[in-house]
Write a structure and sequence with these properties.
Layout lengths: L9 H9 L18 H23 L8 H20 L3 H23 L7 H12 L17 H34 L9 H45 L5 H40 L4
Helix pairs in contact: 2-4, 3-4, 4-8, 6-7, 6-8, 7-8
Length: 286
């Protein structure tokens, strides 16, 4: 049930839950001097947790009959390695790219899975802690799904862009990479150089934006739907004739949670595969 249901409207409730805990008040849509503290904390914390769990599995691995966790990790490692072999042809590059894709998948799935927690659980705890410390709980904000933050999703996709540029220069040489930048895809005629360059920049921009926006958009929409379902349950409990809404909230919440499990894993898989594809394309000569 929404914590603020008796003091704010449904729209205000959603806006409050979509407001980040930032380093300073945000005055515009894009401000590079502002840090979303909650997204950084949860993203880094979950990344460290993923590394710790994988380290524990690696430390306890046996050559005999594997446990469930070891079997699951081995299956994922073999699956990602197989995909990397088919996309990234350079064996030396795969030594870094395959583990990168693997940890990206695990990390994104863990960040996405935060959406399965009750909508008000961590924000209520955070507001309670703030109230005990003397702060106004109405201005205590906390978002717990890092991938529903555009800065996190685009930050990850920009990282993949930089890696693609690095491998493109490493494999082709700086001269070869610049030559390709001006001669592909339409040819080496000097009149086509501006068009080729514009198309290359557009391709890099489109791949990077779509890579991050796809992850962000799906998780942001999922977060909104969970809030709407929570509001439906609150509306049902607010009057004696609204119990149908309350039970509808339970059914809708359960159904959406089950469907969300597919989205959580699928978005991690898509990001991982596109990471391999974009870095693999950086190795190709045109």
């Amino acid at each position: 049930m929404p914590a603020e249901q008796q003091t704010i409207t449904a729209g205000e409730y959603i806006i409050h839950h979509l407001t980040q805990w930032t380093s300073s008040p945000r005055l515009g849509v894009v401000q590079f001097n502002i840090v979303d503290i909650d997204s950084i904390i949860f993203a880094v914390g979950l990344g460290l947790l993923a590394c710790f769990l994988l380290w524990r599995v690696a430390k306890s691995m046996t050559s005999g009959v594997p446990g469930r966790m070891q079997a699951a990790v081995e299956f994922l490692v073999e699956f990602v390695d197989e995909q990397a072999r088919g996309i990234v042809r350079n064996a030396k590059s795969r030594e870094f790219v395959a583990p990168l894709a693997f940890i990206a998948f695990i990390w994104i799935v863990m960040m996405n899975a935060m959406d399965l927690l009750p909508v008000d659980l961590l924000p209520r705890l955070w507001q309670g802690a703030g109230a005990m410390a003397g702060h106004d709980p109405e201005h205590m904000y906390l978002r717990v799904v890092p991938t529903a933050d555009l800065s996190i999703a685009l930050g990850m996709s920009i990282t993949i862009l930089l890696l693609s540029l690095y491998y493109g220069i490493k494999v082709k040489g700086l001269g070869g990479w610049v030559h390709e930048l001006f001669t592909a895809p339409f040819g080496n005629h000097f009149l086509l150089w501006p068009l080729n360059f514009a198309m290359q920049l557009l391709e890099y921009l489109a791949k990077t934006l779509s890579h991050g926006m796809r992850l962000f958009g799906n998780l942001y929409a999922e977060e909104i739907l969970f809030m709407i379902i929570a509001l439906m349950g609150a509306a049902g409990l607010s009057n004696l004739t609204g119990w149908a809404l309350f039970f509808g909230n339970i059914v809708a919440g359960l159904a959406w949670s089950i469907f969300s499990m597919l989205i959580i894993v699928l978005q991690g898989f898509i990001f991982m595969m596109l990471t391999l594809v974009y870095i693999g394309q950086a190795h190709d000569h045109h």
